[in-house]
Amino acid sequence: MRYCTNCLEPDTRPDTEFDGDGVCLPCRYYRTLDQIDWDERRGALEEISDWAKARNVSGYDCIVPVSGGKDSHRQAVYCRDELGLKPLLVSCAYPPEEQTERGADNIANLIELGFDCVYVSPGPETWRRAMTTGFRKYGNIFKSTELPLYASTPKVAIAYHIPLIIYGENPAIAWGGSGGSKDGDASRLKYSNTLGGGDLSWLQDDGFDAGQLYWYNYPSDDELAQAGLRFIYLGYYLPDFLDFVNGEFAVAHGLVCRTGEDADPEQSGNLQVYDALDCDFLAANQMLKAIKFGFGKVSDQCSVAVRWGKLDRDEAIKLLQKYDGKCAPRYIEQFCRYIGISEEEFWAIAERYRNHDVWVRDGNDWRLRNPVG
Ligand SMILES: [Zn+2]
What we know:
Layout: H1 25-32, H2 38-54, E1 62-65, H3 70-82, E2 87-92, H4 101-112, E3 116-120, H5 124-138, H6 146-160, E4 164-167, H7 171-174, H8 201-204, H9 221-227, E5 230-233, H10 243-252, H11 265-268, H12 281-293, H13 297-307, H14 313-323, H15 329-339, H16 343-352, E6 359-362, E7 365-368
Bound molecules: zinc ion.
């Protein structure tokens, strides 16, 4: 395990790209920001908006996929108020056992800012069973739910003849993961690491049929081409589409943040109170990510903060060592209760995914073979 020589990004992230000097892709992108002609990008964004308006046959120029969080608030309001677009919001709703109260309040708040929203609610029993399969087969709680989360948007776009889909940040340049492109084009999103081209065979092998998986089935490349759909990352076109900017914007527009124990990074493994608000299984999934790859959410957040000069590298390393991969037992209990397994079974499955190239036994505990710093 190596780390970016500028931020704290590890090279264990799937599809990460380091250069010969050991600098990660987001840091290299960051260094180009002051050479970017932002007026030109804004012009390109306006051209895309005009393209969509000219193709509006449904009453909507574009779809903004939303969870109701900070990025959703910024995207939806920006598209409407800055670009003059008429967006339809599309939200893939979690079952009540997964959706937090604050998540429900936040999506309600966003809609009350004056938007129309289509909710897609895949059947709860399939959702629960598919989540169980993803956890058992991949040690990933969200392996299955990412499928309807992403596939529902182009499905609604095709059904309603809406020409443009506007996502938030490009994960490749924001986090270093795979986004299929390093620019504003989001059309290759389905080939990202999580979506795997929309492959459903791992669920079909477990007995799920096509009817159960309708909302999990990403439209084929032919269907997308036939619909003439265009996909973009808004974040590529704006100099300040950033976690902390979007967080402040959304809070000013009524976003409810985590409070009390849920806001404690020792328990949530998360430094920001305005991030990941709609589902508390996320803390457990970030812990699982740390078991597999040696880093969790705090590592991601620290790398961004160092890159943007919000934290110096030594301070960031201390935060990472203290909080990365932390997850309070109650989040694990909640997940186990939902999918109907014991905590012993949870840990037995989780430990199957322990990456021994990255972790080594230390008494009753595990430690990273090569911790940052
Ligand atoms: Zn870096």
